[in-house]
Amino acid sequence: MAEIADITHEFIRQEIEEFIERPEERQRTINTFAKARPEMQAIAAALIEGENDIVDQLTRQALDSGIEALEVMDYGLIAGMGIVGIKFRQNFIFVPEVLACARAMKAGMAHIEPILSAAGVEPIGTVIMGTVKGDLHDIGKNLCIMMLRGSGFVVHDLGVDTSPDKFIEAVEETKAPLLGMSALLTTTMPNMGKTIEAFIDADLRDEVKIMVGGAPVTQDFADDMGADGYGKDALACVALAKNLLGVVARS
Amino acid sequence: MGETIELGRRIELVPMDPHFHNISIALNRQASGSGPVFQVHSYSNREGARQRVEFVARAMALLGGLELVPGETCKLRFPCRAEHLFACRRVFLEACKVDPSQPVEPRPLQILDKKSNRTITVTSQGNGIYRLAADGEELDKASRIEAVANGLMKLGQIQVGVSGADSVAFACGQAHDLLVGLLLVRALNVRAVLREQEMTASRGVLSAPSAQK
Amino acid sequence: MNMQSQSVGPMNSRQRVLAALRREPVDRTPVCNPTSVATVELMDLVDAPFPDANRIPELMARLAATSYTELGFDSIMPVFSIIQESSALGCKVQWEQKDNWPTVKMREPIYQDVDDIQIPADFLTHQDTRCVIDAIKILRKEFGNEVAIIGKTMGPWSLGYHCFGVEPFLLLSLDNPGKTKACLDKLKEATIQFGLAQIEAGADALTLPDHATGDLVSGEYYERYLRDLHIEFAEKLAVPIILHICGKTEDRMEFIAQTGMAAFHYDSKNDPVESMRIMRNRTSLVGNINNPETLFSKGPEEVRKEVIKNLDAGVQLVGPECAIPLQTAIENLKEIPKAVKEWHKEKASQN
Asked: What angle do CA A153, A156, A159 make, to 5 degrees?
């Protein structure tokens, strides 16, 4: 079992000590960063601080130096985003800070994605994501998509204001086994139930697992609407997606 | 005061009826001396709205086996006088979907299940008990029948497994052939049913701490 | 502590709402909707469906009046949606159908930088702002001083979201606080102009939604960016202002209480007792009946429980937490004034 002293980057050690309270999460994070090279820890630190230019630069440098793209993604970008997700969940940071971190992650992923696509890395699943009809908010959805892609999912983003028909068409075309719906308004949440009903009408409900999320959504509401799962934030969304598809994490 | 009226408890709503000028149509449950009564109602004052609502009520009777309350054109009840709330909501939604220019056809007690490529047949045993059967290979037959039975249970709040996992029973002890035929279409696709089946199957199985809820 | 006084004679709805907003004694707690209580069934009842009821003053007034004439609320609030000002500023709007809300196309922002912001000369004569002003005039003429007519003017933070896009605006707030403040300073002119026009048309109070919600930004953000602007609004708009912010807001209620605004319309994520404790009678509270889980999904019994929870805590005005889902059942809405009246009757019989 690794210890915090095994992590070379001082800022990362401070982040873990100050912000990660749950013992199992803390140990998991320590284990990850203890294995990470100093260059990866530096990328993670820059991402946590929302420094997109530095993440861009360090990612390029790491790849140019011969470090594998998967390693940079897992131990630099995703590891850093993991700490961001925990801080957000615990209300240490809010959406503007998370957006800045997401921007930094995107800057790094811009170098990683072409390499992974060319290498034909096997995706772990396919997901359709969209914000429900009448709702134009997509911050949460976009964060989830970024985390899902980073975790190895192929994600088809339907955008905002997605009608039940559009969700159904996307599932029919892609044969995606998983669908994620988001809503940020209490007035549009009922459209989640409508979409699920539409899948029943289209005789497709058995073909797809449906997860829901968004600030006003709760587990109770998800159960009432007939969803298969509820994720309270982007981290939970990834864990839920893996659970619903019975996916084992990449080692 | 105004024109809203006491209608009991609204249990279902079609907010925009595609067959009549997008009016909203509601199903309300009311108590009465002889058991629960369901009223179909719309607040629209548009000409023809009343006739549309009456059509939906008649369609509910034809599709789901409810009867119109004597002297009423929009109030219905089950002949058994029981509530069957979930089932009634489903009958209402189906009745609103029916194209008014086409005859209303009750659903048979038999259906092709595309998922398993079998014909599912439901037979009344009397006393409100229905037994499900399927043709085709024995492999997975029993589990598919059980899933469909659970689907009927979920949709209609019918008891399942009263005399076997392949049977369902109405607590009222009365026959509801039309209702079962209507619910059967939906029962093939109720994903939540399978989730419940999985939960039942996992009871008594020791889970690793990380997998425990 | 409810400001009910046995020495207060019977009040009409308007008197009751205005007294509660000033935290003065009332004959009973008013039922108030600073946000929409329109439903598809009410639209059918008065033949005023969306989207037209958001754009045609006669339909807007007719639908809005049902909160008083049908539901028994003490207020009428005709500005159902949140798009009027943004539309008048030039944002594109998706109008949708009867069972859905019009929304601003925030994916097609009209501003990229602070210099892009300008309040057009026809801001108050644009169809969508004009509609609200005319609807208020119609309602005032029809109801006189019988019922409180509440207008609505969007705050600059919310306008920032609409005009810049939510993500770009939030990133700007982090990247360049100075520029963000400059944006808010320019956008506030729309808030003030529209508010003044509604007051002139006859509004008794104004709801001011400014969505610096705890689900998105910290309490410190509210203090940094909005508190002083809200103080300014309370000074310049000479009617009671009801600030509306969705989501968790207990961490910013202390700052809100410093603004001098009459009331805060608060969300069900906040506890009534704790919220009242923070406000310490400096600002009235309005709310906070849950929309998606209670008003939309459950029945009158559950609605009643939440009404009582607010009354027991001494909340000054009771109502839904935000614009209600359009499919909310009428009986759930009617339960709110019913529960309030019965609670007061029971209290009176105990005394």
From this structure: 130
Q: Which domain holds residue A24?
A: 11-118
User: Residue C217 — pLDDT band, cuts 50, 70, 90?
Assistant: confident
Chains that touch B (3 or more CB pairs under 8 A): A, C
Judge: B189–A200 Cβ closer than 8 Å, yes or no.
Answer: yes
Nearest CA in chain C to B4: C70
Q: Which of C70, C97, C99 sits opposite B4 (nearest CB)?
A: C70
Q: Which domain holds residue C137?
A: 13-350
Pairing state of beta strands C103-104 and B118-126? unpaired
Answer whether C221's CB lies under 8 Å from C173's CB. yes
Kindly provide the residue ranges of all beta strands, DSSP E only, lying in chain A, ordered along the sequence. 125-131, 153-157, 178-182, 209-213, 229-231
Instruction: Tell me the three-class secondary structure of chain B, residue by residue.
Output: CCCCCCCCEEEEEECCCCCCCCCCEEEEEECCCCCCEEEEECCCCCCCHHHHHHHHHHHHHHHHCCEECCCCCCEEECCCCCCCHHHHHHHHHHHHHCCCCCCCCCCCCEEEECCCCEEEEEEEEECCEEEEEECCCCCCHHHHHHHHHHHHHHHHCCEECECECCEEECCCCCCCHHHHHHHHHHHCCCHHHHHHHHHHHHCCCCCCHHHCC
Question: What's the length of chain B?
Answer: 213
Phi, psi values for residue A193, rounded to 5°: -65, -40
In a domain, A170, yes or no: yes
Q: What is the DSSP letter of C291?
A: I
**What is the C-alpha separation between C11 and C31, in angstroms, rounded?**
13
Boundary-marking domain end, from A72, A95, A118: A118
Is C3 part of a structural domain of the chain? Answer: no
* Chain segment B11-55, per-residue pLDDT in tens: 999 999 999 999 999 999 998 888 999 999 999 999 999 999 999
Asked if the model's pLDDT at residue C333 lies above 90, the reply is yes
Residue B112 forms contact with A (CB below 8 Å): no
Please list every residue in chain A whose beta carbon sits closer than 8 Å to the beta carbon of residue B114.
Answer: 203
> Which portions of chain A are predicted below pLDDT 50?
249-251
**Residue ending a domain, choose from A100, A118, A136:** A118
CATH number for the domain harbouring residue A220: 3.40.50.280
Task: Give the residue from chain B lying closest to A207, CA to CA.
Answer: B191
Pair of tokens at residue B2: 């105004």
CA–CA separation, C199 and C222 (whole Å): 26
Sheet of A153-157, strands arranged across: A153-157, A125-131, A178-182, A209-213, A229-231
CA dihedral A82, A83, A85, A88 (to 10 degrees): 180
- The answer to whether B167 contacts chain C (CB < 8 Å) is no
Q: Which residue of B has its CA nearest to C98?
A: B16
C-alpha of C217 from chain center? 20
Between CA A87 and CA A94 the distance in angstroms is 8
Structural domain count of chain A: 2
A208 and A137 share a domain? yes
